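note to self: dont lose this again. the chain is below, predicted strucutre after it. 117 aa total, dont forget to put it in the shared folder this time
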Amino acid sequence: MNPSIHDLPSLPHNREGPVFNEPWEAQAFALAVRLSEGGYLTWPEWAAVLSQEIKKAQEWGDPDLGNTYYHHWLAALERLCSQKGLVPAAELLRRKDEWREAYLHTPHGKPIELSKK
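---
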């Protein structure tokens, strides 16, 4: 039997499927699905890394109330993309810094946009 997305641990869902609190969560979810469909990662390795990220967060004090689930999802994505050479670690850090700066300098309620360089 081939593992599927339904084999992932603790995926928030309701009767219609996965539940997302923020648009970025859906985007991170979709990216993992596309990477799997493209053969860049398997669901078993994805589930293993996601589980490791969740365990690490719990060891650091995450109360595991469900509201940080996609933060772990994103950490697992970043880790796998870096480990597999899909995105260099330095590039991930640079882009995260750019997003952070854009977020901090965007008025509340306005869309966050990265400057074009």
